[in-house]
């Protein structure tokens, strides 16, 4: 009886131990998956679990993603670093810079026959058309364009404006001033145009960046402007008038940004993208016809004064009457009237109701300076007088009986008699 009980107990315990070694169907599937993972990756789930990142660590995939993001960020930083104040200035001003093609009628003569009595050829008047190119820039949304007078003057028969976007329009000359070498054009089109912004040329600093924008030599039919970069080399540069040309350049901005033929009339721009001058001429020193590092621009403040008058009346007039008549000093006058050999203006007459008489200026005086500028010629004096307006007090230095005097003229309109 006892033996039977013990036998049954041992048999039950044996069955329980066998059940402990069995694997359930769910666990069997897990093993299969584990084996598949081992075949695919060379690592089983247990090894992956052993290599699982602890807190503060990242997986290989996360590290690769992070590395890719860093490379993209570096590329973005490089691209951003290429954008400077210069590139932004070019981007702002370029759409308003235009190429100008001008057709002018030039007067000439041609030989038509031979006269035996006088033993020479006779000539007859002849007209011919000449085309030239230059640059300019748009200053108003309705299409006002500033350029040099030697690019487009009153003799222009046809003016064509080409924009950087490819559009072309004809333009009319609203007014030109040969003395200041400036012309104001109006585009014939009913649309809105991109414009530039004028800067203050009185605040220009020697050594600051300067950009010359235009179409040198008229090389490119697309009219997309070229850009050259330099610095402001000097300010307040004056040039003695050329006897063969009725132009006076005073207070010019000098730059080493390359300016060549075709750049005339284009803007000189600062690093803020503002126009500080109009590119006008270069000095070659007689060595070549190309740029040698000496370019000059009309300061923007003077440009704005001139174009305001050109826009209103088509010409430049003084807003005051100085009340005197002068004559440029010459060697003939010095010899004839026994005058001192000194550059200046000889006062011929004075209006008793004018500012000159009130300032004590008399006939026979020689005007040496207007403002702080030494007077070189009659043309030069006209240019200097333009720097003043009605209501200003103008300093005048003069010579009387070999003694220097200084006076001030309160500028006003002539008193009607």
TrEMBL record:
Domain called PDZ: residue spans: 315-402
Keyword Signal: yes
Signal peptide start and end residues: 1-19
Region (Disordered): 42-80
The entry's keywords: Hydrolase, Protease, Signal
Listed Polar residues bias regions: 42-66
Keyword Oxidoreductase: no
Gene3D superfamilies with a match to the protein in the record: 2.30.42.10, 2.40.10.120
Protein name: Trypsin-like peptidase domain-containing protein
Source organism of the structure: Fodinibius salsisoli
Higher taxonomy: Bacteria, Pseudomonadati, Balneolota, Balneolia, Balneolales
